[in-house]
Write a structure and sequence with these properties.
Blueprint (H helix, E strand, L loop, with lengths): L1 H18 L3 H10 L4 E2 H8 L3 H14 L2 E6 L2 E6 L1 H18 L8
Antiparallel strand pairs: 1-3, 2-3
Helix pairs in contact: 1-4
Length: about 110
Amino acid sequence: MLKEIRKVKKENISKLMVSFSDPFRLEIIDIMMDGEVCVCDIMKLTKLSQSRISYHIKILKDSGLISDRQEGRWVYYNLKKDSLILIKEWITSLTDCSSNRKRCCE
């Protein structure tokens, strides 16, 4: 059971890491740190075209890092706290394990 949970977490982490692999997506994520935004807000702050932002938003949504809600004709995006917690826990476990020393062939 624990192996299955770890496998699911690894698959989720892998998808989430794609979100962090592009400078434009990092910029969009950074903008979302201040709260919910729409594409027009991102356009103003990044000077990127709407189509380019939509491309990156799709990747962020597909990875599970952001969610959206529609209000009238506007769509608002925000970071998903549960995904951020998953990344934080994984990185914490990496740093904790990195200090463990194992000797070869013991």
